[in-house]
């Protein structure tokens, strides 16, 4: 008992010593963040597992005696873009169309497949689910340090219940990209420029939108120097690491296909064309109205436009009026508006102009920080959980049963 008491007193002295390394691991902020996130992460995966098991009720006739194996249930998650990433991982960029998918995620799948010998889908799903956990931890800690713990808890919960959050669980780039974006932004807010630039570089290798992290980088760099040009130091050159991601991939595209902008031109295969930002929203409403609001075309377009306008409304609230984030957090809004406008500028010129955009909304994490400010209003919280939860169930079930959800 004496030895134990002496040890505890010694640890307390070390903890109170300025600059000393904290020795009590339970007090480590990241351990604490992990402990806060794990129950939510576990509960989400239990819900995904239950729904994956029950999805056979939607694909089999009543009283059917057949039953799938566990492997069949897992393969329900291997849909749409998963196939593109698997083929790029195994075959490479054999044609221009594949350059629409940036290289980091397929490279990680290829490496994981080589090391483990597993199917590329399983490797990709593992990477995404690991990135999902990390991004929730980083988001929690970011919001906790910039706001408070209650808002941090609400933010990760609202993001996790967004209608397209199930894409975090499969071999898509939603989780890896947002994870790298948050890692970059977290270090950016703390003035760790080289780390911020490095993670932004990897985000840019995951998706082209990552290059726009250079904009909040520039703002934060100058803000933390009171916008004094004389305060600029040599570490400003770290900024130029960020666009290297797109430059390197452009170089690869030039060598392979003779077109440095092949990844941009490849978007035409999906009928994505540069347009005014409101084109997709107006066209989606128009198609829904012409085809009937309660038909397949109407409901799908309304779900897409609903997710997009919901995020737009949140960004407006965060930019103006009593809910604005404030000058100290302008970098959040720069990132959010840039990502938002970037995806809206390239809608699909078809009868579903906003396809894929509901899952792109997941990247705009500041919107969920703004939404978390309304957590204290029971009416808003209850309606979001119920409506978003229903849409999450519907869209995820559609995806698992092979319907058209991209």
TrEMBL record:
Ranges that cross the membrane: 38-59, 121-143, 155-173, 193-215, 236-257, 301-320, 332-348, 385-405
A single BP term in Gene Ontology: GPI anchor biosynthetic process
Q: Give yes or no: UniProt keyword Endoplasmic reticulum.
A: yes
Where found, per UniProt? Endoplasmic reticulum membrane
Sample GO molecular function, one term: alpha-1,6-mannosyltransferase activity
Keyword set, alphabetical order: Endoplasmic reticulum, Glycosyltransferase, GPI-anchor biosynthesis, Membrane, Transferase, Transmembrane, Transmembrane helix
Membrane topology per record: Multi-pass membrane protein
User: Does this UniProt record's set of keywords contain Glycosyltransferase?
Assistant: yes
**Could you tell me which pathway this protein works in?**
Glycolipid biosynthesis; glycosylphosphatidylinositol-anchor biosynthesis
Quote the cellular component terms of the Gene Ontology held in the record.
mannosyltransferase complex; membrane
* Cited InterPro entries: PIG-V/Gpi18
In Swiss-Prot or TrEMBL terms, this protein is called Integral membrane protein
- Organism annotation: Ktedonobacter racemifer DSM 44963
Its ancestry begins with: Bacteria, Bacillati, Chloroflexota, Ktedonobacteria, Ktedonobacterales
């Amino acid at each position: 008992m004496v030895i134990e008491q002496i040890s505890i007193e010694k640890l307390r002295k070390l903890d109170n010593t300025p600059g000393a390394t904290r020795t009590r691991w339970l007090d480590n902020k990241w351990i604490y963040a992990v402990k806060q996130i794990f129950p939510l992460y576990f509960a989400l995966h239990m819900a995904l597992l239950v729904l994956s098991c029950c999805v056979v009720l939607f694909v089999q006739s009543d009283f059917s005696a057949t039953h799938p194996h566990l492997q069949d249930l897992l393969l329900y998650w291997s849909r749409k873009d998963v196939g593109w990433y698997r083929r790029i991982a195994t075959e490479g960029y054999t044609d221009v169309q594949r350059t629409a998918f940036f290289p980091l995620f397929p490279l990680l799948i290829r490496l994981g497949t080589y090391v483990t010998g597993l199917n590329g889908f399983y490797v990709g799903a593992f990477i995404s689910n690991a990135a999902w956990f990390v991004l929730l931890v980083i988001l929690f800690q970011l919001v906790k340090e910039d706001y408070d713990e209650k808002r941090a808890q609400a933010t990760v919960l609202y993001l996790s219940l967004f209608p397209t959050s199930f894409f975090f669980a499969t071999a898509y780039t939603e989780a890896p990209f947002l994870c790298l974006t948050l890692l970059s932004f977290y270090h950016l807010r703390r003035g760790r420029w080289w780390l911020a630039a490095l993670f932004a570089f990897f985000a840019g290798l995951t998706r082209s939108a990552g290059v726009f992290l250079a904009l909040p980088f520039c703002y934060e760099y100058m803000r933390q120097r009171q916008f004094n040009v004389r305060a600029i130091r040599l570490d400003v050159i770290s900024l130029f690491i960020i666009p290297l991601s797109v430059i390197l991939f452009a170089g690869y595209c030039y060598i392979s296909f003779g077109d440095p902008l092949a990844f941009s031109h490849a978007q035409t295969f999906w009928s994505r064309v540069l347009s005014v930002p409101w084109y997709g929203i107006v066209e989606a409403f128009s198609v829904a109205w012409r085809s009937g609001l309660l038909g397949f075309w109407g409901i799908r377009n309304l779900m897409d436009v609903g997710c997009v306008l919901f995020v737009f409304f949140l960004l407006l609230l965060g930019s103006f009026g009593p809910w604005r984030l404030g000058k100290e957090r302008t970098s959040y809004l720069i990132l959010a508006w840039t990502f938002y406008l970037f995806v809206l500028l390239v809608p699909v010129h078809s009868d579903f102009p906003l396809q894929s955009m509901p899952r792109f909304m997941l990247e705009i994490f500041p919107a969920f920080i703004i939404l978390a400010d309304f957590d204290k209003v029971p009416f808003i919280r209850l309606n979001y959980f119920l409506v978003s939860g229903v849409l999450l169930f519907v869209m995820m079930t559609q995806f698992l049963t092979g319907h058209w959800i991209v």
